Amino acid sequence: MTNPDPETIVREAKTIAVVGLSNDPEKPSNEVGSYLKEQGYRVIPVNPKEEEVLGERAYETVEQIPEDVDVVDVFLPPEKTPEAAEDAVRAGAKTLWLQEGIESEEARRIAGEGSLAYIENRCMRKTHEGLQNP
Predict the structure, then answer these.
(1) What sign results for the dihedral spanned by CA atoms 67, 70, 75, 79?
(2) Which end of the chain is less crowded, N or C, counting CB atoms within 10 A of the terminal residue's CB?
(3) Domains of the chain, with CATH numbers?
(4) pLDDT at 28
(5) In the predicted model, what is the mean pLDDT of residues 106-119?
(6) What is the 8-class DSSP label of residue 79?
């Protein structure tokens, strides 16, 4: 997929792996993860430093998640996103989504080679809110 539509992805997604999801309510990952969970998405934390976030078991990698993942939503520094992209491809996810302020040519290349839709520098929460309040 070359030019995926973020609104379509948000509309069709059911399961979202949030890479870097933290228990710290001050962190954007927690704020966005909480919001997505409140909206009815299945939110699965991926963070090797956490055992449980938002009442869900946390995994070290997306590949370890025992169910299909629609979107891998990444809250990591840009230099760590290629590793997340490779993990998303191995896990068979449909979309790699880098949150606002995060861009990576290498992650884009890996996602493309793995046939994943790719979104960068965009907030999933804001995209969802835009659907609710056009």
Answers:
(1) positive
(2) C
(3) 6-132 (3.40.50.720)
(4) 96
(5) 97
(6) G
